[in-house]
Amino acid sequence: IDFTLVDFQAMFKFIDVEEVLRPVLECHNTWVPLQQVKQDPNVIAYFQNILQKPMWDDDDFQTYFEGHFETWEFKQQHENGTPVVRLRGV
After folding, report:
1. DSSP per-residue codes, 18-82
2. What residues contact residue 62 under an 8 Å CB cut-off, 6+ apart?
3. What is the mean pLDDT of each run of 10 residues along the chain (90 residues)?
4. What is the pLDDT of residue 31?
5. What is the pLDDT, as a whole number, of residue 81?
6. Element holding 17 (H helix, E strand)
7. CB-based burial of residue 68 (10 Å sphere; 0-12 exposed, 13-18 middle, 19+ buried)?
């Protein structure tokens, strides 16, 4: 066989959450409210269609961001009392 057929729809099953969150935050050069991240259509679609699980709650997102501190900065309470996140180095 000198060729292979690939079903590119299958690749979406292997997308990591960072691949979904990074584009949401790259277009901002400041802190982004966590609620805004959770309302992004791509993030919603990731949880519904790929993970097929409910959206993480704020504590789960905080755990993820703090566990990947080399990529993300997370503040539990920003000036207005809401959790915010941004990419490191921005």
Report:
1. HHHHHHHHHT-SS-EEHHHHHT-HHHHHIIIIII-SPPP-HHHHHHHHHHTTTTEEEESS-TTS-
2. 74, 76, 83
3. 61 80 92 96 94 94 96 87 88
4. 93
5. 83
6. helix 17-26
7. middle
Backbone angles phi, psi at 85, to 5 degrees: -145, 155
How many angstroms separate the CA atoms of 48 and 30, rounded?
27
Instruction: Show Cβ contacts of residue 74 under 8 Å, excluding neighbours closer than 6 positions.
Output: 61, 62, 65, 66, 83, 84, 85
Alpha-carbon distance of 57 to 35, in angstroms, equals 10
pTM of the model: 0.81
Q: In what order do the strands lie in the sheet with 72-75?
A: 32-33, 84-87, 72-75
How many alpha carbons fall within 13 Å on the CB side of residue 37?
A: 30
